[in-house]
């Protein structure tokens, strides 16, 4: 599902809300999650999962095309860990 599909589905399930308002709500949620991760915070959505940032150390990698050694800089990457309710639902263990 992409962002526009999410907005459309929420708008359909909540006919009392205008689609433009749903779009603002969804964009605000994503922006807040992005800002929190950018500042190094962890974002937890109970029953869904937790977003965090993991640090990857600098290393020597390989160019897959030439096999030549390449220095890869240290970087920070987003990480998502599923919550128990989501994991159970995906594995068919719904309550």
TrEMBL record:
Entry annotated with the keyword Heme: no
SUPFAM superfamilies, A to Z: IHF-like DNA-binding proteins
Keywords: DNA recombination, DNA-binding, Transcription, Transcription regulation, Translation regulation
InterPro entries for the chain: Hist_DNA-bd, Histone-like_DNA-bd_CS, IHF-like_DNA-bd_dom_sf, IHF_beta
Keyword DNA-binding: yes
Taxonomy, superkingdom: Bacteria
Function statement: This protein is one of the two subunits of integration host factor, a specific DNA-binding protein that functions in genetic recombination as well as in transcriptional and translational control.
Assembly behavior: Heterodimer of an alpha and a beta chain.
Family: Belongs to the bacterial histone-like protein family.
Protein name (database record): Integration host factor subunit beta
Gene that encodes it: ihfB
């Amino acid at each position: 599902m992409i962002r526009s599909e999410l907005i459309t589905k929420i708008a359909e399930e909540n006919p009392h809300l205008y689609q433009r308002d749903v779009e603002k709500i969804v964009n605000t949620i994503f922006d807040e999650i992005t800002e929190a991760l950018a500042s190094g915070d962890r974002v937890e959505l109970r029953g869904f999962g937790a977003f965090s940032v993991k640090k990857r150390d600098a290393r020597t990698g390989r160019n897959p095309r030439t096999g030549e050694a390449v220095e890869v800089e240290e970087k920070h990457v987003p990480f998502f860990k599923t919550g128990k309710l989501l994991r159970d639902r995906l594995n068919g263990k719904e309550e």
